[in-house]
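Blackboard transcription, Thursday session:
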Amino acid sequence: MVESDRVMLNTLSGALKTSKDFELLSTYRDFKSALGQSSIYNPNLFLVDIDDAEAFKTLPGFVEVFPNAVILGTLSEWNADFAYKAQKCGITGCIIKPFTPQDIVETINLYNKRGKSEPSRIITFFSPKGRAGRTTLAALLALDLAKKSNESVALIDADLQFGDLPIFFDLEPKHTVIDAAHDIKLLTPSAFAPYFHEVTKNLYLLSSPDRPEYAELVEAQQLVDVVRMAGHIFRYLLIDLPSGFNPISLAVSDFANINFTVAMINTGLEVAHMKRTLDLFKARRGHMHIDYPIFTRVNPCTEEQKQKLENQIAHHITEIFPNEYNLVSIANSGRILYGLPQDTLMMKTISKLADEIIAGKL
Amino acid sequence: MAVEYSNVKQGLSVAGGHSGIIISIFSTSSGNGKTITAINLAAFLAKEGYEVCLMDLDLQFGDVCDYLKLTPKYTLAEAQKDFESDPEEFNAKNYLTQYTHEDLSFSVMAPPKSIDDAYRIDVSAVEKIIEQLAGFDFIILDLQAVFSSLNLAMLDISAIINYVGIIDFLPSVKNFKVGYDTLIRFEYESNKIRLIENRSNSQKLIRGEDVERLIGERFSHKLPNDFQSVNKSVNAGVPLMFAAPNSPLTKSFEELADSYLQPQENSSTHIEAAEEQPNRSILSKFMGMLGW
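(Written on the board underneath:)
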């Protein structure tokens, strides 16, 4: 254990010494002596103080010397920037001080499910207008990512007025994104995790509220805080945004690694919406390349048609999806978890997209 | 094109005492046919000889001008800007664009050209602008599918709220129900809200009657499905009466427009919810979820 505050060091080590589950090998006040001397013990768990930004210089060294150890950064209070930096250094995760041995066990379990010790991939789903297939794509991609990556995947329904994810999965979760936004300032990663409802193996959902006016109660910044802490807990985070440009869709998509912009071909006027959207995002993002356009219900769903659309919007298109009639009846019956035919072009395209995300190609 | 407004009748309309009647078209999801309804309603009322102004209040992604192939010189953004800088001299009619095809003509207030401008639209300015348009017999508002302060203010001043839904998809039914309940919770009179079912006769797995029982209210109008005619109309940039004069959908819009020319019924279309569900169908399960 590395802890610069002597009082805190006494508190934390005292609790660990009385625990049957842990054997405290050694305590240090500073990183350098810890890194130099720990090798004689072959420890499998490090609890290292990351309240001081200096810690991030030494952390990669720990990861290199002890690749099989669990390394938890300890923080006096939740700090999304520090937590992100710590995961970027390759450590397992964070825990908030003071903590009990039981807290450590819970935290380790949380990160065991999470997967690789790397920052999360945050994927947002934006559409200029509703009824574009945005939620369907988010749900199907999340299912496929959970299945293939064997890492934890979370869906956040940030369409606060008309969120459809709970009905897609035929769920009625106890907690909603509104509760999370209210409580976020008081939460720690391990306290926040139970707000997510386990949909299936590796897939978790933070649901939207059932009344549109509750959306009024949430500030964009609170939702950003929710997203940042959730990103710490889950390896992949998929967020269904409300339609159109609003404080929430803009603020949350700014934090994405990938922002899928989804429009459905209907009367054809949607092509102009896509162009307008991409132009605005381009002006907003500067050099950041995170916006990936997707058209749904493209008929015929061919490479030729894709090129035609690309010419119209003067932008590369990431994917085009065909119309999938079966999907409506499957989603209507809440059977999306079980009933999707895998051999359709729709599902093959989803699968390809998931592979590319896992491989880091997007 | 900027408009000459000398031909617009000022003051009270001669046509049966209709003046400044505000009809809004609202839904809880886009792609439900709001814009098509708004345009064709405006067209049929104009054809009857009324002065009609259609306002596209889907500020970010409004389709009225793209549909009618209009290239407005001024939009709501310029109207608001000029109103704010000089309210005394401001005349809302100078910011309208005239749509004319053959002998049909009505006015359009275009949405802002840039999304930044759309962001800056202020509710009270829009209210003042609409006040100045009261000389029109009918003002049709094409709204965005969201509960926003602008939309609530527009629903407040509307004589009739056409609440449009396509109910082929369970999430859409949920949102239709949630939206209706919200309108009632916000104390809009149920008499003022007209439920309109779009694509009522298309192949679908959810029956209109089940949705009526779920909502507790009957559809006051049903629009038949005619995707081809709609596409023809959009491609040609003309209302359905020109693109597909014989389509049942065209006739249905004409009937809807005519219904505003009759004295409005006061009798509620409220129906009692079914006492019990014989089968535990998806919808009844769904009713349960919503606390029925």
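Lecturer's comment: Chain B has one domain: 21-289.
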